[in-house]
What we know:
Chain A is of the alpha/beta class and 394 residues long. Chain A has helices at 5-19, 46-62, 86-96, 108-121, 151-164, 178-193, 212-221, 232-244, 264-267, 287-300, 306-324, 332-341; strands spanning 33-39, 66-67, 70-78, 101-103, 124-127, 144-146, 169-175, 197-204, 225-229, 253-256, 275-278, 344-346, 349-353, 359-369, 372-383. In chain A, a hairpin with a 2-residue loop joins strand 14 (359-369) and strand 15. The longest helix of chain A is centred in the last third of the chain and has 19 residues, at 306-324. Chain B has helices at residues 3-34, 41-59, 62-83, 93-115, 142-164, 166-176, 178-183, 188-214, 220-235, 240-260, 265-279, and strands at residues 131-133, 139-141. Chain B has a two-stranded antiparallel ribbon. Chain B starts with a helix and ends in a 13-residue tail after the last helix.
Amino acid sequence: MPLSRRSLLGVTGAVAASSLLPRPARSASLAKIRIGLLLPYSGTYAALGHNITDAMKLAAHEHGDKLGGREIEWVAVDDESDPAKAPANVNKLVVGEKVDILTGPVHSGVAMAMMQIVREEQTLTLVTNAGAQAVTGALCAPHVFRTSFSNWQTSYPCADVMLKAGHKKVALVFWNYGFGQESMAAFKEGFLKGGGAIVKEFPVPFPSTEFQANLSELASLKPDAVFVFFAGAGAAKFVKDYAAAGLREKIPLYGSGFLTEGVLAAQGPAAEGIQTTLHYAEALPSAANKKFREAFKKATTREADVYAVAGYDTVNLLSVALGKVKGDTAARKELIAALETARIESPRGPFRFSRAHNPVQDIYLREVKGGQQRVVSVALKDAEDPAVGCALVK
Amino acid sequence: MTLSLVALQLLNGVEQGLLLFLVASGLTLVFGVLGVLNFAHGSFYMLGAYLAFWLAERTGSLLFAVLLGVPLMLLFGFLVERLAVARLYQRDHLSQVLLTYGLVLLFNELSRLLFGNDVHPVATPALLSGSFKLGEVQSWPAYRLFTSLSCLVIALLLRYVILGTRFGMRLRAGASNAEMLEVLGVDVRKLFARVFSAGVALAALAGMLAAPLTTVYPGMGESVLVISFVVVVIGGIGSVRGAFFGALLVGIADTFGKVLVPSVSSAVVYAVMAAVLIWRPRGLFGAPAEAR
Amino acid sequence: MTARQRVQALLCAGALALLAVAAVGDRFWLQLFGKAMITCIFAISLDLLVGYAGLVSLAHAAFFGLSAYALAGLTNRLQLVNPLLTLPLALAAAALAALCIGWLSLRAAGVYFIMVTLAFTQMLFYLFSEAPWFGGSDGLYLSQKPLLSILGRPLLDLGNRTAAYLFIFAALVLSYFFLSRLLRAPFGRVLAGIRGNEQRTRALGFSTARYKLTAFVIAGAVAGLAGYLDAALYGFVNPAELGWRQSGLLLMTVLLGGRGTLYGPILGAFLLTFLEHYGARLTDHSSALIGAVVILVVLFLPRGVAGLVERGGRG
């Protein structure tokens, strides 16, 4: 099943044209279920948007392209990962296209803009990537779920890992924006609680990839280890620079799992020995993961990644919940209850929602060995985000 | 901070500055002679890096990639100048900004179409994969030293071409008065096309040299673009010498900004630029002539 | 019809169409056109600089964003929801910032001016996305939308979509008439003189620096009005709103529509709104499409869409 963005857009275009006309009342069981995708298809995060979309369509295909007995209409909008355009884009999907269910986005700033509108409009929303704490924290809502992770989940468990390895004095290096700041806060929470000390913090302006000044200072400070947050091109460059500066052998490097996601090939031997924590690893031996990875590769000719997993799970969770209410999206209370109690066997392991609607999931410790990501152990079993400020958690 | 660490950071700043100079030199040259403010300059840097990745993968050597890539980009620059930029010499800066901004959007999509959205590695040449010891913990990759030396050599070459050759003479004459040059029988159109494609090639060469250090990814030109504008403005628009010292100043300011005020380090470079302009509104080496 | 009559007819028809949208009350179109009208206010304020004073500024998004952040700060920190208080304060913040940035930037001319304004925009962008006290890169919510009530009775509630839409409409009409009056006044003629030949205007005894700074501050304040409305409409502010990309996009809007005519940028704003809304559906590479449109307009329509209107739409 080759999935192309073009065919998706073709569908969208047709939908858009028809949505401007008054639609005849059709019985709920026959009408197609409209699923909105607010994802980046251009710009820095385009690869993520495509992987999430393709994995969602793959999962849908495995359910016979039906959810709760209803056919699916995908309505995609390229959010360009631009928060300045986000309100207009969300408005287009939620108010203009009147989607039944909204999914996305990748960028946390876009997610924050989205939350404001879906809270006003009461749209059933499944966040497929953005890890901002507020989504299932201060801004949590009964009709908003997240199928990916919270920033806390990807960093907090690493504190314990590093303490157990005997690293007491640690330096932090991170991109100085929301994702990086929240990851560091979570790590510090765990690390200080466990009796560790932070030697120094190095915020690097996002998206700068100039690290020499920080590396020289790191080398002079000689901490026990370094914990970092970078992703994409920044992660690739940091890991290479770190190794080239001769620090790799002397000061062990740890990070939130995004440090090595999708850039392992670009990092090459420089990534050897890096340990990271994340809710997924490509090498997980479970049958569910193997099956998913094979199917994704067959459908897209690309390797699946952590982003694709979230997309895949999103549709599988919807399939379970919509199956329970027989595709009746008007039965909101029942639909939300069905999502809250849904349990699926995700490629990442067992999956369920917390009371704040964030995944409760195992966090794995992974290590790069021989150019491959190996799973070392489960760093934190059933990790549940603290959901600070969420009214759903009482 | 110990003295040796200060020296080390100074070295980091100079190294960053030298590569910045290579990007900025093309930008300032094009502005100085053609009077065109080229927002697509960062895109040429990006295209150079992608070309290095693509050619190095096929030829197996970065050196071959550079030897093949630079002439290709010279040609590409020539085409862009003939097809689009040449129509703008009589127009104001706003039209130039917009046309070249449109080119940025176009080239970004072009690189996405050709190379996809992934981050690509470019291997360091085997000959330069070693490193030198620097202090007790840190070491200095040989390739960084190589890029710094290359940039210095190119800077000296540019100086020679501008000050010591006939082409350089025309170039300087073109920068101060193109009409006069035309009257004297010099084919200004040809001169402009050559200068523009030289600027494109310089940007692309910088991208090629930087590729093994930075990896290659979509949108990599944009951050380089804004910072090289800062360099050019600090140095004085149109002055290659200014770009050299401006680049060093920016490299050093950025490095020490990161060390001394890490939480607002990205604003430091812009603050330096504002300070320089308040002190000398035409940059360090800018001509005091009428506004261009 | 003369060109002038044609333009007036076009503007009246447009205004009526916008009011018709309010009467129909479809919430989607209210939002879409509400946003488009905000872009119109933003664009005509930049046109005052670009089209009339000959100042190509890349700092314009800064004033839009600062005013939006000012509203967020006043609402969230000081619990001020009365627009009679927050609107003047937000506009004052934008005007003050324009005064400082303008005073410094206007020391430079031509290309240097473009670059200095770019530098200030970048500085503010980084300040707002990195420094902890502005909500960081993910942006900020307004705890409540502006609300004017007298004796407990709500008089103007910007949380209500139709009310917000009509308020934006009124703001656009007022901004348009304010700027066109200003440009017909002696002030506007001096600006035109500066754009044509600054030295001569100075020789005639006008302090051109002061006129340019005044224009910069007025444009900044009107941009602030647009920023205030944007924050009020969506209840959300983000540092991306004050980056140079926003300034660049706005310049594109002004040029596409036709600078030096106040109605041109309005046409440009609506044209780009439609292009973005429908263009994304036609092609996978919408930014290449926009890039190509920009290049073609620069090369073949130097006076923008307004130039077409004035020639009566026939070649």
